Amino acid sequence: MSVEPLNRLVKLAARAFYDDITTKGDNLPKTGRSDNRGIAVVVLDALTRRQWVREEDLAKDLKLHTKQLRRTLRFFEEEKLITRDHRKETAKGAKIYNAAVAATADGHHTGKEGDEKIKLHTHSYCCLDYAQIYDVVRYRLHRMKKMLKDELDNKNTVQEYICPNCGKRYNALDAPQLVSMEDEYFHCEVCNGELVAESEKLTAQEMGDGDENARRRRRDKLEDMLKKQEAQLKPLTDQLNRVKDLPVPEFGNLQAWEARANAAARAANGDLNGNDPSKSSLGLGFGGTPMPFVGETKVEVAFSGIEEKGENIKSESANAPMKVLPPWMIKQGMNLTKEQRGEAKEEAKMDGSSAPSGSVDEKKSATESVDVKSIQDEYVKAYYAAILQRQREQEAANKEQELPSSSISNGAYNTSPQRQLGMKSKRDDQDEGDDVEWEEAAPAGNAIGNFKVNDLNVQADASGDDEDDDGIDWEEG
Amino acid sequence: MFFHIVLERNMQLHPRHFGRDLRDKLVSKLMKDVEGTCSGRHGFIVAITGIESVGKGLIRDGTGFVTFPVKYQCVVFRPFKGEILEAVVSMVNKMGFFAEAGPVQIFVSNHLIPDDMEFQSGDVPNYTTSDGSVKIQKDSEVRLKIIGTRVDATEIFCIGTIKDDFLGVISDPGATS
Questions:
Q1: Strand, helix or coil at B92?
Q2: Distance, in angstroms, between A181 CA and closest chain B CA?
Q3: Which of A193, A276, A304, B25 lies most in the core, judged by the most C-beta atoms within 10 Å?
Q4: With an 8 Å Cβ cutoff, is A397 touching chain B?
């Protein structure tokens, strides 16, 4: 999240300053095909979505030629926007990097194919240097403004002179060499032509030679330019101000970053291994509160595994950011988080909702008093409980009809239509309050609600077969 | 800006000066050699104020000259960007005017002269305000601000401005005479 404003800054700066940068050498003739303006912006945007990235991978992702990309990157390096690291490495070194990439790049895809053929090559990596970018952009703006301001009030500018004959340029510091004995003008050292003052650096097109009108016109034009500059760069300056007090994400150099990312990945993996089987039982252990919390952590780094341990501390109000987000939040980080949370939420719901179902009715009474929940959640809970009860009954009925030895998936397929039917039939004679509640709960998570109904069935089968402590069995198996 | 610093120099002394007043000769030669010179690093050496130490002389093979390493205190003058100086106008032309502040030459281009001063050519070229109250011509004293310096190994040249508050003519020699 914290990187998002900075990324926005990078994108704005890219569009403001590097939009029409070509990285072609001057000696090459410019044809329509080789016109690569805008590449710089694309590359910078791509870099905002990555941390350290191998340049070959970046090239592959962007479908650019490596050489072309490298030229662009070298340009950015000179502009101090990115840091690069070159090193000779074997396949092993590449693997370290790949592991690190796998650890960080959960949401975005980086091409990792083709690392088998690495023997011992020099590889270049690059990464945005956010702290420096901030300074560079600020400095650039400052210089632009200063140049215009100086020009505007003619202050502290070193006067330049130009020879109209041979085009040689001088400035005021050359004055003693230029002054000639015969008249009061400056003369060119080369051709002895009379020098003219190059008065308007920025507004050279109107060669008003010092007379009052021209001077005023020049002033107006400069003021206009200054105003325009301020207006057009406003988004950028705003973003700079916004970023000012934010901590800058520090990736460190390549080695440090790799080490960190790998460590994080290992931690996450270790946890995941222990996690997978226990996931179904997790809900049981934590008092049957569904935890759609995993998605929240995934937004930033792949630390989710670690954080899951402290899961029960947070209530399921983790839903809240989905519903109400302050506008600034939406602007900055929404794209990424939403989709990520969306997919994460789905799976979280899967195991979150499936697991607790067995114990909701027992444990809920205990947990209800502890954590304060939204009314909707209450409804959902009550609904679950009701459904579960009905399921139990249904299950009991089913068991007599068909054998429980059918596989879970089969059971799910088989039972769901039956369940629907059963529910319908049951609901008719059951209380009407449930129906109403369902209607209210639906808008909160429409798709999810439906999802849960199906999902509950799966679990219901399992929980129906073995008793409430089935979670422990899962964990061991 | 003026500084009082210690510098060192290897002095070569002709054998004919070897005698009772060798030291005096050495100092006078040092003054003759050094005062008024300019080094890019330290600026103009204005005056030698004292001798710190004279090292052991080394006789050169073949010539008989002796080299003494001499440490001496001196006052140096080095102009800096942003410094305010008082200078005497030495030349006025259409492009601006030249002024001298001691050994330093300063050029003020006509863009850095206030807009209300116009160049008047003629017998005594000058810059004059429209009401004629202020006039810059040769030998005028001006207060100016240095906005740029060019420092070579043996030469310092400055450009200045009088287009700022409290800058400009201090006293007009034409008015007093």
A1: strand
A2: 11
A3: A304
A4: no
Q: Which of A153-167, A230-244, A306-320, B153-167 has the weakest average pLDDT? A: A306-320
Helical axes A433-441 vs A375-401, angle rounded to 10°: 120
Residues B90 and B158 both lie in one domain: yes
- pLDDT, tens digit (0-9, with 9 covering 90-100), for A425-459: 444 444 444 444 454 444 444 444 444 444 444 44
Question: Does residue B150 sit at the A interface (CB-CB below 8 Å)?
Answer: yes
Q: Quote the CA–CA distance of A447 and A454 in Å, as a whole number.
A: 11
A470 or A329, higher pLDDT: A329
pLDDT in tens, B102-119: 889 999 988 888 888 899
Task: Give CA–CA dist B90/B106, Å, rounded.
Answer: 10
In Å, what is the CA distance from A423 to each residue of A376, A386, A392, A444, B70? Answer: 22, 11, 12, 22, 110
Domain boundary (B24, B52, B77) is at B77
Each as own residue / partner, the long-range contacts of residues B50-58 (CB below 8 Å, 24 or more positions apart, any chain) are: B51/B27, B52/B6, B54/B23, B54/B26, B57/B13
Kindly list the residues from chain B whose CB atom is less than 8 angstroms away from the CB atom of residue A150: none
Instruction: State the smallest CA–CA distance between residue A133 and chain B in angstroms.
Output: 30
The tally of domains found in chain B comes to 2
Instruction: Please tell me whether residues B23 and B98 are part of one structural domain.
Output: no
Residue with tokens 């105003």: A227
Mean pLDDT across the stretch A212-231? 79
Report B:58-117 residues touching A (Cβ under 8 A): 91-96, 98, 105, 107, 109-112, 115
Residue span of the structural domain in which B33 resides: 2-77
Contacts with A116 (C-beta within 8 Å, 6 or more apart), sequence order: A91
Q: Which fold has domain A1-159+199-243?
A: Arc Repressor Mutant, subunit A (1.10.10)
